[in-house]
Design a protein that fits this description.
The chain is mostly helical. It folds into three domains: 4-138 and 149-219, no CATH class; 240-400, no CATH class; 403-517, no CATH class. Helices cover 71% and strands 2% of the residues. The protein is built from 22 helices and three strands. It has helices at 4-22, 30-48, 55-58, 61-70, 77-96, 108-140, 149-173, 175-187, 193-219, 240-265, 269-274, 279-284, 287-307, 312-347, 351-376, 382-400, 402-414, 422-426, 433-440, 447-463, 465-469, 479-491, and strands spanning 498-502, 505-509, 515-517. The protein has a three-stranded antiparallel beta sheet, with helices on one face. Strand 1 (498-502) and strand 2 (505-509) form a beta hairpin. The radius of gyration is 30 Å and the shape is flat. The chain starts with a helix and ends in an 8-residue tail after the last strand.
Length: 525
């Protein structure tokens, strides 16, 4: 039996915690604290009613904790977006399978349907719960005198906006009355009343949504009837011959493409030049298209696998065609990877060149997994495999530290004589500052490179000075921001370098007289 008073008290306190942690503050350590409070309070209040989480559902706390924690460790935009997004997604999975614990058996359809159900519970669940509680309370109060407190509160809530409207009209009508009202407002500090009302409404909205999610976890998470588990959602209707022709045609096309790849791209610079292309032109074209082909091939094979009727012998042939398809696609991914590596060698590293590098590795692993699942007849596990690949991609970005990696790679590349795009490095997030600081004194690179790195860190400081100098409350503590602030406090000012601005553009003059424009970038993705 759920205790309605405890549920409301818990969710209202969580709403108040949201206000304390986030109102008029930049998110920082506040986010993982709030997530931890939701998990702890939710588990405790439901356990108090005898509803305990399934052990397999508790396993989701690990990715929730990791990605929530990394939100105040990393500042790079895509990494930060994935950290927030995956925290919310896994929190949703936790609520959906709280007592059932079957999240690892979900298909893609279960994921989508489950999120819609959870959204419906968050919006409509509290209303039905309020009606249910009211009916029980009315039945229990047949012999008791009704409480006078609730009508008084309702009356005050109704009277407050009406009195405010009349007071505003009367203040406009009489200057003396308006002055007295102003004095009254100042005494009780009511000038911020609209803000307080809004914050109160926001606290209630947060409490309302969390109540709906807790109710779903308590009442509906045990009934996990998975889509297509007992009966296939879409019965196979396409013949083996038709599917084989489709797969065979695609295989022939891919085989021809791969043959050309081996002849020209893997054959070296001479073969490419024969066709009239330079290495840079060849590398610059196509890696995005190759990744797209790989993704479409994955869903083509999955789609045909789910709608094709086939006997046991035909199943083996179909799996063989799938293996061949994946092998050819993997060769394409290697080609795309090589193109991207070559592009980076010539033009340098950037975010939009680093993301595909990591993505292609996890996509290749997912392709291999799909074929294994086809052979084992475990196609339903594709959703779990895709989830693991997404988690792996996001975790890799976190462990790699994308912006620091870009600095390190571009500085190492400049040791071979390549020009360093100091303005692009200056545009990166605070994650790049420790790597820039380390490169300033790196003896393995030239004086010109060290000077460019020094200018980069100076440009970064002046472009972010207002944010780095601001005093943040403890709720906004961010490890990347804190580390960058500490480094700048140690190295500023850098002797011999002068800075001036011209219409919002920063210019840095090095000790030898060379001038640098903080906005003069030449990296294009």
């Amino acid at each position: 039996m759920l205790n309605s008073k405890k549920l409301w008290r818990t969710t209202l306190l969580l709403g108040l915690a949201f206000d304390i942690l986030f109102w008029d503050k930049v998110p920082g350590i506040s986010f993982p604290i709030f997530i931890a409070l939701i998990l702890l309070a939710g588990i405790l209040v439901l356990s108090d009613s005898g509803i305990r989480p399934n052990k397999r559902a508790l396993g989701l706390i690990l990715p929730i904790g990791f990605f929530a924690t990394m939100t105040f460790v990393r500042a790079e935009p895509l990494t930060t977006f994935l950290n927030y997004s995956l925290t919310f997604v896994f929190m949703a999975f936790f609520a959906l399978s709280y007592t059932g614990g079957r999240w690892f058996s979900y298909s893609l359809s279960d994921y989508v349907a489950g999120l819609f159900k959870l959204a419906g519970s968050a919006l409509g669940g509290p209303l039905s719960f309020i009606n249910e509680t009211r009916k029980k309370r009315d039945q229990a109060q047949t012999t008791r005198a009704p409480s006078r407190l609730i009508p008084i509160l309702r009356g005050l809530l109704i009277a407050l906006p009406i009195v405010a409207i009349f007071a505003s009209l009367l203040s406009s009508a009489d200057v003396v009355f308006a002055q007295r009202m102003d004095d009254f407002i100042k005494i009780f500090k009511l000038e911020d009343l609209p803000e307080y009302i809004f914050r109160g409404i926001l606290i209630f909205i947060i409490a309302y949504i969390l109540l709906g999610i807790l109710l779903h976890a308590a009442r509906k998470s045990g009934d996990e009837k998975l889509i297509g588990e007992e009966k296939s959602l879409l019965a196979p209707f396409l013949g083996f011959t038709e599917s084989s022709i489709v797969l065979g045609s695609v295989l022939l096309l891919f085989a021809a493409f791969v043959t050309i790849q081996f002849q020209y791209f893997f054959g070296g610079n001479a073969n490419i030049n024969i066709e009239g292309y330079t290495y840079a032109e060849y590398a610059r074209r196509g890696f995005g298209e190759l990744v797209t082909v790989a993704v479409f091939s994955l869903f083509l094979f999955l789609g045909l696998s789910s709608i094709t009727r086939r006997s046991e012998k035909e199943r083996k042939t179909f799996s063989g065609l799938g293996i061949f398809l994946v092998l050819l696609v993997l060769v394409m991914l290697v080609s795309a990877f090589q193109r991207l590596t070559l592009y980076e060698t010539i033009y340098g590293f950037s975010r939009l060149r680093t993301y595909p590098h990591i993505f292609m590795i996890w996509l290749g692993a997912l392709l291999i997994t799909v074929v294994v699942l086809e052979i084992l007849r475990k196609q339903r596990a594709f959703a779990l495999a895709m989830t693991i690949a997404i988690v792996g991609f996001a975790a890799t970005l976190n462990f790699l530290n994308v912006d620091a990696f870009i600095v390190q790679q571009n500085v190492a590349r400049s040791a071979g004589g390549a020009k360093l795009d100091m303005a692009y490095l200056a545009s990166l997030s605070n994650d790049a500052v420790p790597a820039l600081d380390a490169a300033m004194d790196k003896t393995s690179v030239s004086h010109v490179t060290r000077e460019s790195v020094t200018v980069s860190i100076i440009c970064h400081w002046y472009q972010n000075e207002s944010r780095l100098k601001e005093t943040r409350p403890w709720q906004s503590f961010h490890l990347s921001h804190s580390e960058a602030t500490r480094i700048y406090a140690e190295i500023n000012p850098i002797e011999g370098y002068t800075v001036n601005s011209d219409d919002w553009y920063w210019h840095v003059t090095a000790p030898g007289g060379r001038e640098y424009d903080c906005s003069d970038r030449f990296i294009f993705d």
